[in-house]
Amino acid sequence: MRNKIVAGNWKMNKDREETEVLLAELAAKLPDTTAEVMVAPTFVNLQEAVRLLENSTIQVIAQNMHYADNGAFTGEISAPMLNSIGIDTVILGHSERRAYFGETDELLAKKVAAALEKNMRVIFCFGEELEDRKSGKHFELVESQLRNALFNLEADDWNRIVLAYEPVWAIGTGETASPEQAQEMHAFIRKVITDKYNGELAEKISILYGGSVKPGNAKEIFSKPDVDGGLIGGASLVADDFMAIVEAI
Ligand SMILES: O=C(CO)COP(=O)(O)O
């Protein structure tokens, strides 16, 4: 059985007070669930979030990290720093990091390796842009993103990889991939991993869908056999919406 996961990527939202309010609401409203529930507040509020959720099963995760342990990288945060405040999961490769901060597959391969070396779990994001889909290149593109950043990993490393397929055209746009489109791509991803590694490994990997998941569409998307949960942006900033999505899993 693959782990079911619902993770909230808060992006650059919520100051300290707003973070405290939302976390308290989430902790109070968390339904009984066997799924893993995670939130990724901004860096400045991570330590406080870890403290506030000490007695909750909601996990606090990071939105990004640098590949080096320390050094002259102004404005960056490293895996050991995250480890030191009790964080063991990081989102890498988000399309906003790729588009606005120039993150390439090559850089992401280094980040993934660095995170795994520090025993962290990685939620690796990838997905095509609208032009790729329109021109029918989406499968090829997704395969190349996986190949370039992850296919140098050993089979054992995959125990700590969670995949998050996020078609860029569905992020923050209100436009969701249809449940069928999500299923089609997730099944393709599992096939690509089966071909590179093996079917047993591919069957164990949780593949999340991200892109305009809301309370109204979550259940249908999550009902697809190869969709193991969601990476949620906008709807993770509203406690009732996020918890309705957790309910849907
Ligand atoms: O980018 C996302 C999660 O990482 C998805 O964002 P939205 O849910 O706001 O579309």
Automatic annotation (TrEMBL):
InterPro entries: Aldolase_TIM (IPR013785), TIM_sf (IPR035990), TrioseP_Isoase_bac/euk (IPR022896), Triosephosphate_isomerase (IPR000652), Triosephosphate_isomerase_AS (IPR020861). Substrate binds at residues 9-11, 172, 212, 233-234. It catalyses: D-glyceraldehyde 3-phosphate = dihydroxyacetone phosphate. Pathway: Carbohydrate biosynthesis; gluconeogenesis; Carbohydrate degradation; glycolysis; D-glyceraldehyde 3-phosphate from glycerone phosphate: step 1/1. GO terms for molecular function: triose-phosphate isomerase activity. It comes from Zeaxanthinibacter enoshimensis. It is found in: Cytoplasm. Homodimer. Keywords: Cytoplasm, Gluconeogenesis, Glycolysis, Isomerase. The keyword Manganese does not apply. GO terms for biological process: gluconeogenesis; glyceraldehyde-3-phosphate biosynthetic process; glycerol catabolic process; glycolytic process. Belongs to the triosephosphate isomerase family. Gene3D superfamilies: Aldolase class I. Its EC number is 5.3.1.1. This is Triosephosphate isomerase. One of its GO terms (cellular component) is cytosol. It holds the Pfam family TIM. The active site is at residues 94, 166. Involved in the gluconeogenesis. Catalyzes stereospecifically the conversion of dihydroxyacetone phosphate (DHAP) to D-glyceraldehyde-3-phosphate (G3P). The gene is tpiA.
